[in-house]
Every structure is written in structure tokens, then in C-alpha cells.
From TrEMBL:
Alphabetized GO MF terms: S-adenosylmethionine-dependent methyltransferase activity
Family from the record: Belongs to the methyltransferase superfamily.
GO terms of biological process kind: methylation
Source organism (scientific name): Mycolicibacterium brumae
Protein known as: SAM-dependent methyltransferase
Coiled-coil spans in chain: none
Pfam families membership: Methyltransf_11
Gene3D superfamilies documented for this protein: Vaccinia Virus protein VP39
Taxonomic lineage of the native organism: Bacteria, Bacillati, Actinomycetota, Actinomycetes, Mycobacteriales
Length: 240
């Protein structure tokens, strides 16, 4: 493919914003350290997590490598610093934030370079928080969706790679439900890197199968709204 999959999301930034879910407050509460004021949202994308952090009155800086994603973020959060950068080269000074949060993006990073960079920008005792929304495929139609677009993997495996730079590594899960329209589900699928980087005929086939699922599954057909269950996986660790 002509560009790395990690940089492919810009082609579907608007669909990403429309279709991707936000993050449950319980997960954010668990990830943030007590008394945190300055927070880096690393791999911020269109600002799904950034928005939730700004709403809490935190001083937030958003960093992402994709211009199109940051353009969407800047539109909704014009007063929030949004910087072009990567986890391997974070455009912030040393000891500048209390927490670094990474939503849906750690799996795209090079940990050998990203972990020292995160440690560099964190203040002593600062916290790294990782979070992923994963579809709960125990519900029949959600499992069938996974058959079409690929089943979820468990991101909890990334916890083992944080030591020895980070200590007190913990995991937490939050079950919740996101409510969206049928078109938003199409946008969710369209914004997946696999779909974006696939040939046009593959994209058309995948989206056609999703539309058929929406039109024929008893839980979805003729419904103006969809309840999509999620299992949000959280990992937090403290700078050693």
C-alpha cells in the first residue's frame, strides 16, 4: 500500500468523527491520576477523547500525525492546542504534563521509541493511560458484524511491554452501550484502516455486507437507532 495503515485515517476523517464512539466517564476517571491538570492526548485523532478531557476543565494538548484528523479536532475545539507530531517524537518539552492518555492508538506506535518519549514529557510520578473501545461480540448481530469486518482482539496484551519504565501497571474494563444511527455504523466501518486501505471493490463488498446486515437482521431491520455494546479496555501505569 502507498501509505502506512497508521496514517490512512485522514482519508476518512469525517467518517471517523461521525461513526467512532466516545469514551465512558468511568474509564476516564480510572485513567487520570488524582490532581492532574496538564494532560497530553497522544494520537488524538479527531478529538473523541480530547473533548471529554476539555469538558473536565483540564489543560489539554492534542498531538496526532495526521493533518486531516487535527483539522476536524480544531473545528470542534478551537481553543485546544493541536500539534502535528508522533508518539516517537512528541512536540512537547521535558516534564510538561501530569498524564499522557492514548485512545485507540497505542497499537500503532513503536514502543521502543514511544515509551522513552512518553517518559520524557511526563513529570515525576506521572501516569500513562491507554484505552480502547472494543465491540462486545456476545450479542448475536455484533458477532455477525465481526464476521464481516474482523473480530476484535484483546488489547490488554500491551500492558506487559510497559515495564521497567513504568510501574504499578493495572487493567480495568468498562461495559457500556453506544447508541448510533444505521448510517453512523456504516461510517464506523468506513473509518477502519482495513477498509480505507483496501481496493475499491473490497470496500464496496464489505460495506454492502454491512448494509445487508442492517436491512435483514431482526434486531436491526427498520430500526432508526442501534445499540452497540462495548467493552472498554483500560491500562494505566506510573512513571518509575
Amino acid at each position: 500500500m502507498s501509505a502506512p495503515r497508521s496514517l490512512s485515517f485522514g482519508a476518512q476523517a469525517a467518517a471517523y468523527e461521525r461513526g467512532r464512539p466516545s469514551y465512558p466517564p468511568e474509564a476516564i476517571n480510572w485513567l487520570l491520576p488524582p490532581g492532574a491538570r496538564d494532560v497530553l492526548d497522544l494520537g488524538a485523532g479527531t478529538g473523541k477523547l480530547t473533548t471529554r478531557l476539555v469538558e473536565r476543565g483540564l489543560n489539554v494538548v492534542a498531538v496526532d500525525p495526521i493533518t486531516e484528523m487535527l483539522d476536524v479536532l480544531r473545528t470542534s475545539l478551537p481553543d485546544t492546542p493541536a500539534l502535528l507530531g508522533t508518539a516517537e517524537e512528541i512536540p512537547l518539552p521535558d516534564d510538561s504534563v501530569d498524564a499522557v492518555l492514548v485512545a485507540q492508538a497505542w497499537n500503532w506506535f513503536d514502543p521502543e521509541r514511544a515509551i522513552p518519549e512518553v517518559a520524557r514529557v511526563l513529570r515525576p510520578g506521572g501516569r500513562l493511560g491507554l484505552v480502547w473501545n472494543t465491540r462486545d461480540e456476545r450479542l448475536g448481530w455484533v458477532h455477525e458484524l465481526g464476521e464481516i469486518i474482523g473480530h476484535e482482539s484483546d488489547p490488554a496484551r500491551y500492558a506487559s511491554g510497559l515495564a521497567p519504565t513504568f510501574t504499578d501497571v493495572r487493567q480495568h474494563r468498562v461495559e457500556w452501550t453506544n447508541y448510533l444511527t444505521p448510517q453512523a455504523l456504516i461510517d464506523l466501518v468506513s473509518s477502519r484502516s482495513y477498509c480505507i486501505t483496501s481496493p475499491a471493490q473490497v470496500q464496496s463488498r464489505v460495506l454492502g455486507r454491512v448494509r445487508t446486515l442492517l436491512a435483514t437482521h431482526p434486531a436491526l431491520a427498520n430500526s432508526p437507532g442501534i445499540a452497540l455494546p462495548y467493552d472498554t479496555v483500560c491500562i494505566r501505569a506510573t512513571l518509575a
